[in-house]
Amino acid sequence: MEPNLQYNFAEPGAVSVRIASAMRQRMFARFMRELVPKENETVLDIGVTADETYESSNYFEALYPYKHRIVAAGTDDAAFLERKYPGVKFQHADACALPFTDRSFDLVHSSAVWEHVGGEQNQARMLSECLRVARRGVFLTTPNRWFPIEFHTRLPLLHWLPKPIFRAILSKTPYAALANEAHLNLLTPADVRRFTRRHSEWNFDIRAVRLVGWPSNILLVAKRL
Known about the structure:
Distance between the termini: 46 Å
Largest sheet: 7 strands, mixed
Oligomer: single chain
CATH topology: Rossmann fold
Number of strands: 7
Helix content: 25-40%
CATH superfamily: Vaccinia Virus protein VP39
Order of helices and strands: HEHEHEEHEHHEE
Number of helices: 6
Shape: globular
Structural class: alpha/beta
CATH architecture: 3-Layer(aba) Sandwich
């Protein structure tokens, strides 16, 4: 069994997909509330996908009101977004080595990408790159490893095991494609906090979106001092 380009195995109409769509709308609302983007500000959205399996695919481009200010970046060929959302510009880009100069954008947004860039060294590099190209603010989201259901496989509790054991077990299941650290490396709030410590010129706020009362997604809001 192979995941779609969003590293997910769920069918489009699955309950988990409908829940994820609602969560993404809540996270978008948090982005708008926390960073209060202005119409004249540029936004880099990192991690757009060529996969349109789900209604919430590329939700930022669908919901953001100032589409002419968005540069949509990703490793997939998502150039179709320029036609689907007039004003949006697509740029092929690696989140760990962004092809932009320092402070190229007022704001940087990325949702559910951080867990797919590889090990902790790459994850720390992605944060550094987001901060480097942002003038004012950065908003990153990622699933919380301590939520009892793993979102990509929908398996309960298995991901709470030490990562080598989790990956060894996962490699024997239909979800073996996600046993590779390069494809899935879940983060905890403590991991995110550790990544932020080397960036003294930023103010960081680590928050959560809750599902049935449990923190399901980590939100990192960064504002330049």
